[in-house]
């Protein structure tokens, strides 16, 4: 089975006051198309004006949200292949001298298969084993509703608090946490 990628285009079909909408995907090998159902037989009056305009214009931002609607994809696709690529933007909200706690809040725009431990290890320049040790010692807490969140994919709104009061390389970790990585 060949993978399909979104074309960024929406197909609409109107039948009286009812509207059907599909997101068009193309085979990466042969350009064959697959129309992923967004909705069928929806009354036009039930759609907001902004949604209707986004559908009619194949608005790139709106389409991108649909492309990463994991639940919608799972209902319509046999298999979902994820890219491990992620763009990380860092923003320091507050920095205090003599700090010992590092708090991170994730704001993921789209769904991702990237595991939390891989993201933290990469962005903090520490090993996944060390992250797990910090977690086991109660020095790394993930506020996400899961005890095993380190081994699962990132979600928007996750909050991670790391106690680095006993770590001599606290400044190096802070440097990695606050500076963008070289491309």
Can you walk me through this structure?
- With 183 residues, this protein is α+β, with helices and mostly antiparallel strands.
- Helix content is 28%, strand content 26%.
- It has six helices and six strands.
- The protein has helices at 49-57, 60-67, 70-76, 116-124, 128-136, 170-178; strands spanning 4-15, 18-27, 33-43, 101-105, 140-143, 159-163.
- It has a three-stranded antiparallel sheet. Strands 4-6-5 form a three-stranded antiparallel sheet.
- Strand 1 (4-15) and strand 2 (18-27) form a beta hairpin.
- The longest helix is centred in the N-terminal third of the chain and has 9 residues, at 49-57.
- The chain is elongated, with a radius of gyration of 21 Å.
Distance between the termini: 33 Å
Biggest sheet strand line-up? 1-2-3
The 3D shape can be described as elongated
Radius of gyration (CA) equals 21 Å
Roughly what is the average pLDDT, rounded to an integer? 82
Low-pLDDT stretches: none
Helix content: 25-40%
Strand content: 25-35%
Helices and strands, in order, run as EEEHHHEHHEEH
> Count the strands?
6
Give the helix/strand class: alpha+beta
> How does the major sheet shape up?
3 strands, antiparallel
Count of individual helical segments = 6
